Amino acid sequence: MSQRTPSLTLISTDTLPTRHAVVGASDSYRVVIAHRMSDCAAAWRLLEQQSSPAIFQTHDWLACWMETVGKAQNAEPRIALVRDDNARLVMILPLMLRTHMGMPVLHWMAEEDADYHAPLALPDFAQTCTGSMMRDILMRVANQVPDAAALCLSKTASEFAGIRAPLSLMPHAPHPSAAHAITLTGDNFEDFYAAARSKSTRKRDRQRRRQLEKHGPVSFEVADTPMRRHQMIDEILAQKAIWLKARGICDPFAQDGVYAFLHRLVDDQAICKQLHISALTVNGEIMAGNMGYVQNERFYAVIGSVTDGDLARHSPGVLHLHELFKWCFANGVKVFDLTVGDEGYKKEWCDSRLDLIDIHVPLSMGGVALTSIARARGYLKRKVKASPRLFTLATDARRLVNRALGQ
Q1: pLDDT band for position 405 (50/70/90)?
Q2: What percent of the chain shows pLDDT beyond 90?
């Protein structure tokens, strides 16, 4: 099959891919597509050391995902390795090919299950990369995956750790949600807490803890054995499922392969060292829990849960968050990443915001329809989230529909 060059515009869908050689600013770069995680494991891990990516872009995390969720979804790795004219690996795009709307589409690996995405890139390459270079590199990727109908990269980070993401140079649309993080300033939790919260708020938090203590000993537990980690994951997911159902939200952790993926992380010898599972308990019963990761002095709080019982009125989730902060100060963590989502409590705490973007590129006639629908869906989500009235109406409608369907 002859090569093709896709049109990389998000505004017009008139111009479809034409077939000719790629010539442009990226002539000094070469792209190779790996079809197996193992084919590029050593190179990937080396680039991790040089680029310090988020946990969601590490080889070991994504390998666990591919072996569980990826297999359940029939996803096929299409990992793009970009080298310069000195054969130096400067960037990896961890992509996969998966059927969507009946067409093969290039997505980020773990598209739904990673909180945000980005390529791994050497800092000097990321800082000097131009829009035309990135466009030509994506052309080369598309040429080597000729059956792809579209390139759909959602929840793409615009930057990470202060370094601009090369893909932010491409035409894009804002993702409906952003990611948020907290800089853990000061030498200890007490000073940080006093600076971050008002005197009245701190008093109310002490009252909440005293109310919980009336029902038994309150403890903070970090699971330190594989058996306890597996148990805590099950309890956190059970609490989360109840919370989601009450709000009419489909449970993403009940999707094919996700349960196996989360438990696989516990058993994987490489990634388990970065896994952090904890809970606030009363009389040994979990009132609030969290599954997260610790990497490069950064704590990723990914899956949080809280009881739906009577003690929920004492805000055990808030108290658990305080305990996590204390653990972070004691263990040298500098950034507490609350990841994607615009919940109110994040805005109360967070001092940094990571804007996420969506990139949709049609590579065929069918891809035009697919990317047009994806862009329209993203636009509607942004409008709904920006309007409290529309958001409330949409939430109520979703709850009614899911209840009618028995979900």
Answers
A1: low
A2: 82
pLDDT score of 403:
67
Rounded to whole angstroms, what are the CA distances from 403 to 88, 247, 341, 396, 400? 54, 10, 24, 11, 5
- In angstroms, rounded to a whole number, what is the distance separating the alpha carbons of residues 380 and 398? 15
pLDDT over threshold 60, residue 407: no
Mean pLDDT of 192-197: 95
DSSP states of 260-286: HHHHHHHH-TTGGGGEEEEEEEETTEE
For residue 213, give both structure tokens: 């203590």
What are residue 286's DSSP bridge partners?
A: 281
247 pLDDT tier (thresholds 50, 70, 90): confident
Task: Tell me how far apart the alpha carbons of residues 231 and 221 are, in angstroms, rounded to a whole number.
Answer: 13
Q: Does domain 30-176+356-404 have CATH number 3.40.630.30?
A: yes
359: left (phi over 0), alpha (psi -120 to 50) or beta: beta
Coil, helix or strand at residue 2 = coil
Rounded mean pLDDT, 364-379: 94
**pLDDT range class, residue 387, cuts 50, 70, 90:** confident
Residue 20 has pLDDT above 70, yes or no: no
| Predicted local confidence at residue 177, as pLDDT | 94
Report helix, strand or coil for 21: coil
Please tell me the distance from the alpha carbon of residue 184 to that of residue 171, in angstroms, as a whole number: 34
CA angle 128, 334, 317 (to 5 degrees): 120
Query: What separation in angstroms does the CA of 35 have from each of 40, 42, 54, 75, 208?
Result: 9, 15, 22, 11, 53
Strand partners, 104: 99
Kindly give the pairing relationship between strand 335-340 and strand 298-306.
parallel
CB atoms within 10 A of CB 150: 25
Q: How high is the pLDDT of residue 347?
A: 85
In one-letter notation, the amino acid at residue 367 is: G
Whether 90 shows a pLDDT value over 60: the answer reads yes
State the span(s) of the chain assigned CATH 3.40.630.30.
Answer: 30-176+356-404, 181-353
Spatial distance between the Cα atoms of 66 and 33, rounded to a whole number of angstroms: 16
Token pair of 101, please?
Answer: 């709307």
CA-based end-to-end distance of the chain: 45
Other residues' Cβ atoms within 10 Å of the Cβ of residue 228 = 15
Fold of 181-353: Aminopeptidase (3.40.630)
CA distance 170 to 340: 21
